[in-house]
Amino acid sequence: MTGCVRMRRIRISGGGSSALFGTSFPFPNYTKCPLKPKSFLKLFPSTTTPIFTTLHYRLITSAQHSSPSSHVHPTPQTELPISSGGDGQNGYPMNDSKVVLKEMRYAELEKWVQSHGYRPAQALMLWKRLYGNNINIWAQCSEELEGLNKDFRKMLSEHAEFKTLNLKDILTASDGTKKMLFKLEDGLVIETVVIPCESGRNTVCISSQVGCPMNCQFCYTGRMGLKRNLSTSEIVEQAVLARRLLSSEVGPISNVVFMGMGEPLHNIENVIKAADILVDEQGLHFSPRKVTVSTSGLVPQLKRFLRESNCALAVSLNATTDEVRSWIMPINRKFNLNLLLGSLREELQSKHKYKVLFEYVMLAGVNDSIEDAKRLIDLVQGIPCKINLISFNPHSGSFFKPTKKEKIIEFRNILAEAGCVVLLRLSRGDDQMAACGQLGKPGEIQAPLLRVPSQFQAVLEAAA
Question: What are the Radical SAM core domain coordinates in residue numbering (predicted)?
Answer without folding.
Answer: 198-431
